[in-house]
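Note to self: keep these together.
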Amino acid sequence: MNCKHKTKCFIILPILVLSVLMTGCYENAWENHATQDKLLKSDLVEAIGSKAELSTFLSMLKKTGYDELLKTSNEFTVFAPTNAAWSGVDTSNVDVMRKLVGSLIVYKFYATDNENLYKSIKSVNGKNIFYEPNTQTFNGAKIITADVRSANGIIHITDKIVERKNNIWEYLSGNSDYLQSQYIKSLNDSVMDPEKSVAIGVNAEGNIKYDTIWKNINNFLQKYPLDIEDSVFTYIVVENDGFNTLYNKYKNYFQMGTPAQTDSITRFNVCQDFVIRGIVDITLSDTLTDVDGVKIPVKNAIIQSTYNASNGRVYIIKESNIRLKDKIKPIIIQGENYNKASDANYVFTRYKRWAQGERDIVLSCSESQSDSLWRKVPLAPDIVVKKDSVASKTYVINSGLIANVTNFYIEYKTNVNSANYDIYYVAYDDIADHFDPTYTSFGVYKVIQKLFISLPGKDPLKYGNIPDINGVVNKNGVVNNYLGDSRCFVGEDLAGVHKETKLKQWSLVTGTQLIESANTSTDSGIMAVTKTGTLTIWLCNTARSNAARNQGLLFLDYIKLVPRITEE
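Structure:
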């Protein structure tokens, strides 16, 4: 260049260079703008097809049929792996690929500025995708190109394939080395699906024939849905030696009719004790509480492996020696939660602030009791009052509604373990007219009530004919009581006293089943349950008298059954 004015020359050259650069920038910006406009008019399949680095993913969409889904008017978010991400993946199995590709597509539109993207989101095949903030990955995959928009959704290009996580049950099913997995899997059962099975005619016997569709059921998974993607749990698997330790500790408290039944229910209970709601880091706690309220010790637990599932987390640990007293716990039966009664019209539920659950029940009846009373004034030649007069008083709840039924019962049912139990209850008579602790006007009503019991697997309690020694038949005698017709548990206390009362065995008068005498043996307070299952209890009146209209009152806040646990 031949320039007479060098200063002008130096000014012109930078301007020309800048002009060229600016022209290039405008052209690139326009190109990007034009490309984006074109993508916004394309469906997701077309948008993916426009990206050379997504050609393998596009072929997988077509192979599995998911390309047709992405052409619909629904809105989707797609995690699209680059071609390099598919290296080493066997893409020949269509069923496997369908499960994998279905985990990369999410209903709804989630751009990277949407905070919901970084919570758990669900793919179209039901699998959850979790964001890990420490690695900034989605089930192990990192977004390298974000927010590529199309007419019906958005694409996030990822460096790896978003991992299709197994749910907890899928993971356990594939790990059959563990006794927990083996047992839960053994509960699988196929049953006919009546909704999907098709009637195809009638057989020679006149019964409908079906093209039967079978569905799998599993009693454990029905109670603890470790196979459901919408339910999030942490499940702990203990290695087999740890499982057997718990099994041997539990089995005496889960005795059933046969060894096979005992074995099954014991294994079921070991397995159920490790289901924890939500995703929990067990390294942060000394003790966890499972969904049934059992405490699981995990302090210094030896973790063999961890698996982050699509619906939670699985830990494999060496052992967790759950204490028996945390497993076999006291049972509280609320008075108002009765199953049935001789006549429920006479059973009143009361609102009481002092009661557990703020409710108790009473039976509307009456009873006459005699008490020794203090004289109101001294009788000559005495100069002080004496406690030597006897008076009778009838105690009632509602004089207009009297349950005239011998052994009026209120029935309760509860599940118990094969164990020895102590029985307590709170039967608080707080009616002011029922207690005069000064004994100047009348005495104190003695709250005496009977408990009859039928054990799991035995004939139920019922009314039956019980003759007395003279042959007179009591048609409302209680039969099938596990202690026989002439013995039951009895609770006795005084009106106006609010406390837990321990029940003990008493002998009953033959025929009438009125109380006779307390059993003084050392085991008189024990209810011995030999089989796990449903226990039936009848709370009955008619303890001291079976006179018409004076059979006896009943009160109950709650019954408590306390197991005698002899080991930790």
